[in-house]
Amino acid sequence: MKNLAVSNWSLVLAFALVLVAVIVSTKEKLGLSKDIFIAVGRAIIQLIVVGFILKAIFKVNNVWLTIAMTMVIIFNASWNASKRDPNPRRHFWQSVVAEAIGTYLTLGTLIASGTIKLTPVQVIPITGMIAGNEMVAVGLCYKALYEGFHDQRQQVLEKLALGANRQQASHSLMRRAIKTGMQPTIDSIKTVGLVNLPGMMSGLIFAGVDPVYAIRYQIMVSFMLLSASSLGAVIACYLSYRNYFNDRLQLLVD
Amino acid sequence: MMLIKVEQLSYLQVLHDLSMQVEEGDWVTIIGKSGSGKSTLLKLIAGLISPTSGHIYYQGQDITDLDPIKLRQSVSYCYQQPVLFGETVADNLNFPFKIRHQQPQHDQLVASLQSVQLPAEFLTKKITELSGGEKQRVAMIRNLLFHPKVVLLDEVTAGLDEESKQAVHQFLVKAHQNGTTFIQVTHEIDEIANAEQKLVLENGGLHHEELSR
Ligand SMILES: Nc1ncnc2c1ncn2[C@@H]1O[C@H](COP(=O)(O)OP(=O)(O)OP(=O)(O)O)[C@@H](O)[C@H]1O
Ligand SMILES: [Mg+2]
Prior knowledge:
By secondary structure, chain A is mostly helical. Chain A is built from nine helices and no strands. The termini of chain A are far apart.
């Protein structure tokens, strides 16, 4: 860890970088200066709190506390994914189910295969990565589904009039929504190493780990993000398309 | 036999205490000004929207007690401006089979195309390459492939050329002879002139108009 030397003083100097963003915003009259200060302020406070919480949890090293922490992460991810659903008839529990199944199945596979150990130091950061990526996939999926039901409303109506059930009437939109949810993960995996050195790998290299060893972790991360984003998108989509219909099988989209 | 019975039906500000009865084998023609609620009435009968108050009975049963899927497969609403879906004409004609978990027979699809004067090659034709009249005819056979008992026609011949209109008309007459019951909304002069039973929708209610007028 000797390579890592971010002192408080160097952070203060790095704050100059924030000022660059503020200067751009002011010069270009973007009106973002306030937003930037709020964002930076929030980030600092959130990270300080998280830093101390993680330190405490790592020190206690208790399985139940670790699991409780993963639940908190999943709850937050679900909350944010659900907020991205433009459908006023959305249900929060559906996001929780999608996030929980996607995250725990992926996590469980990693632990069962011995790829990671059931220790807070490994489980908590990995859970955060999985749930965070899944949150983006689920949110995109919700948005695409909503757009599908609006853009292709007449097609759905037509299928309902032909005597289709909810799923048959929505299937083509659902497929597109799931695809939209998974696409960013697939795209980022395609260019991994060529364009972006992802956070996990960069972190390991930073900490002085041999890059040839660090890539193994990155490969694992690619696998798990793919699994989580596809599970999350599929489950969220299969639960939420029903929100667009009433029990008389009428479309609730004007 | 009484097939459809509508009692004291109201829908928002559009229909008020509307009642009507349709017997098996009838061909009822409904006319009325634009915005008078003709499409609304047909959609209510197919259970695609629900009334504010009143009842609709199909074969003596309140449609709210029926499975909406079964109802719509028996009482089929043809949209005023239908859209085709998927890529090709075949995708559209396969759909009614797919929702019934059946495999379509190629010959059957070709025969259905020919029944509205469309050639067999149309099966593989892209939906974006169809004219308005061709689209309308494909949508029509899509609705009638499984011979619903009642077909609700919402201005299905509006804006078609004479040839398409004739093709559709012949197709409908044949289905009628085979026992299909029709409730048709139209603005076409000759369809109105030849109507078997004519009803006028006005001020939210239906009334008879003497055929001699
Ligand atoms: N969901 C709705 N909420 C409120 N008003 C509606 C709704 N749907 C339709 N209307 C109104 O009901 C009236 C009847 O509409 P409808 O489509 O049934 O008319 P129509 O007789 O079929 O007309 P056209 O001959 O132009 O097709 C219109 O004034 C329409 O604006
Ligand atoms: Mg109409």
